[in-house]
Design a protein that fits this description.
The chain is α/β, with parallel strands linked by helices and 345 residues long. It has helices at residues 25-37, 58-68, 83-92, 113-120, 139-155, 172-180, 189-196, 219-233, 236-264, 273-306, and strands spanning 11-18, 44-51, 72-77, 98-101, 126-134, 164-171, 200-207, 313-317. It has 10 helices and 8 strands. Helix 9 packs antiparallel against helix 10 (273-306). It starts with 10 loop residues before the first strand and ends in a 28-residue tail after the last strand.
Length: 345
């Protein structure tokens, strides 16, 4: 795809997942639209805000923005879906030639978009941004982030770029695959996109501090996302029990051999409960660890087996397009007094 002034003008949708971003959204929107307006002649654009149920008034802010500009659309989810599935919901609402995904807190700088489009012109299907640093981020957080990428790259066959953010440009080809071919419920975009193996360009950036509010990724949610990534793209933890079992068996054999040798040379075998307790505790710990790892994978299988919808859309505002996904997801068939689906398109 070439963004030029000759021939058909390509289209770009910017998908922005939101959760409790009412305070900072007007500033983000103003900065984003300024950047997109500077692209006049290179492409047409549209912004799709995907709102996880937010008690702070984010929904009302998006409604106002959509009423003021026909290029703004809103997708309001029926129940909390999380950041990753919100990205997927936004992609399904787009029929553009390319989709840019980014966060709505200004940590992903909108001024990077022209350079992202330039890289896309080279013929790649994915432009992946790479966060090299974050203003105000502590050394512990940076270390944990590097550790996660190092761990998952060792455990899985999918190689992820350290610092890779959910700030991408995806071609229509990639979006169609994600919307129509990927059916799993436990979606991890940072792994799925490189897993496709399509031509990719990277660009580095420094993340700003949030314009308002607090990060929605608490330690618990960050650990959950990391676990999701490992479970989705690695079977190695399931094999960990074999390795631990072999180690324990070897230790047991060595202990038995040592006891026999001690008896043969006439030494008394030390008596006491301490050794027995240590051995039993070790065995119990190994068993519980293996059961826990199996449980993580079983929980994912359980969710997949239920075949519940990935997302449920309660309402849309502005012009949206349903690309992929079961019909009952878009929008959800709610029980309204007149039997209609709440839709303000």
């Amino acid at each position: 795809m070439t963004f030029s002034e000759s021939g058909p003008v390509p289209s770009v949708s910017v998908v922005v997942p939101l959760f409790n971003e009412a305070e900072g959204l007007p500033l983000f929107h103003a900065e984003l639209t300024n950047v997109l307006s500077s692209l006049s002649g290179r492409c047409t654009w549209k912004i799709i805000y995907v709102v996880d149920p937010s008690p702070d008034g984010t929904t009302e802010v998006v409604r106002q923005l959509a009423d003021q500009d026909s290029r703004i659309s809103g997708v309001f989810l029926l129940r909390r879906a999380g950041h990753q599935l919100s990205l997927l919901a936004g992609m399904r609402a787009s029929d553009a030639d390319a989709v840019i995904t980014m966060d709505g807190d200004l940590q992903h700088p909108p001024e990077l978009i022209p350079e992202i489009l330039r890289l896309y012109e080279t013929g790649v299907d994915v432009v992946q941004t790479v966060r090299v640093s974050t203003d105000g981020q502590g050394s512990i957080a940076r270390g944990l982030s590097r550790g996660f990428y190092g761990l998952i790259n060792r455990l899985s066959d999918v190689k992820m770029v350290a610092g890779g953010a959910d700030y991408h440009l995806l071609s229509r080809r990639v979006v169609d695959i994600l919307c129509n071919e990927i059916v799993e419920r436990d979606v991890f975009m940072r792994g799925l996109i490189p897993w496709l193996g399509l031509p990719t360009a990277t660009i580095e950036f420094t993340a700003r501090q949030r314009v308002a509010g607090e990060s929605k990724y608490s330690i618990r949610r960050s650990l959950s996302l990391a676990t999701s990534g490992i479970v989705s793209f690695s079977k190695l933890p399931l094999h960990l029990g074999i390795g631990l079992g072999l180690v324990v068996c070897v230790l047991a054999i060595l202990t038995a051999v040592g006891a026999v040798v001690a008896r043969l040379v006439g030494n008394d075998i030390p008596a006491g409960w301490a050794t027995l307790i240590v051995v039993l505790t070790l065995l119990s710990g190994v068993q519980l660890l293996c059961l826990g790892l199996i449980g993580m994978y079983l929980s994912v299988i359980f969710d997949e087996a239920k075949k519940r919808p990935q997302i449920l859309v309660a309402e849309t505002v502005g012009t949206t397009h349903r690309n992929g996904g079961p019909a009952n997801e878009w929008p959800a068939r709610l029980a309204t007094p007149d039997g209609d689906v709440p839709d303000r398109q």
